[in-house]
Amino acid sequence: MRRLALLVGAIVLVDTMFYAAITPLLPHLADELDLGKNGAGVLAGAYAAGTLIGSLPGGWLAARVGVKATILLGIALMSISGLAFAFGTSIVLLDAARFLQGVGGACSWGGGMAWLAGEAPRERRGEVIGGVLGAAIFGVQLGPVVGALATAIGREAAFSSTVVFGLVLAGAAWALPARPGSEALTPPTAALREPSMLAGMWLTALPAAAFGMIDVLAPLRLDALGATGLALGATFFAAAGVEAIVSPTSGRLADRLGARPVACVGLAIGALALAVVDLPGTAWLLAVVVVLVCGLLGVLWVPAGLLLTGGADRIGLDSAFAYAFFNLAWAGGFTIGAAGGGALAQATADAVPYLLLAATYAMSLVAGFWTPGRWRRPEPSLPFGSWRQR
Predict the structure, then answer these.
(1) Cys staple from 208: which of 16, 330, 340, 370, with CB 3.0 to 4.6 Å?
(2) Which residues share a beta bridge with 66?
(3) Can you state the angle between helices 67-87 and 91-119, rounded to 10 degrees?
(4) At 158, which CATH number?
């Protein structure tokens, strides 16, 4: 069990590390390729678009063929996409590389988290997966460092290293025994009739949209206020560090109290945080606010995962599909936040998409208080879902 947790943690760490490496590179690429906020949003959101397309096929593959094969496919796609991003010179190729990386992430995350859920002790699944989420967040923390390094030594050297990481991870995954796939599967469309799964998907999409907006608008705003590439990397490094503390704590609280109370706290915090994120007028103050906001937005990941896997258990859906729907909701939310938020900000002002999403958080909080039947507490024996703040 320990070896498996370390393997899955390493897989999600590497995936999120190269996903988040785009953050300090975005202003440079926007200038080099003449991208506006809209084009920058598409580049940042291409990973999520790939995850959106790959989520359900990845879940089907993990459930039918097996978790190990799905992980190996995801690692291979990550390595190929890393090479393409390393040597790409056009925005079309860079967008395509990020998209392919997202498809690979859907496979490796779906397979890895389903594998771990099947092996984790029932009474500690929230805590165990919360620890893996911590590894993923640490990857997000390292990503801006990799991006800052790429600005110094070039994208070719920094992103070609995905092949080395991929070979090591594939070898480790190959050496572990895994459960085979299943022939008898509950149709994944049954999830759309389960209230807990719908609530879990919504609570996944909201913070994903928030992170999508921040990943696009905050680096451009910081750059406009005079922040250097190193300062950008340090800001998002610190932001992920705060979230790495918040997520395991959220997992332990959700194990004890249930998903609904933790989700309500997360919605209240998110509404307040998004309402103020665009107020600072200096680079250093904006950096502090971004660190705090990004850290606090992660409260919702754990209750969302618990609701999804609890609902999947009730309808007899394979756990791989629970993670597939988590990825699907994350990808949809992030794509809307990155591409839609960037386009709306370009047409109006940065404050407009932030305030619209803050209002959505507030309305969701009200709905959560008045529809408790949709947020039933999962039984302690249920597995817990996965995350990607990619």
Answers:
(1) 330
(2) 180
(3) 160
(4) 1.20.1250.20
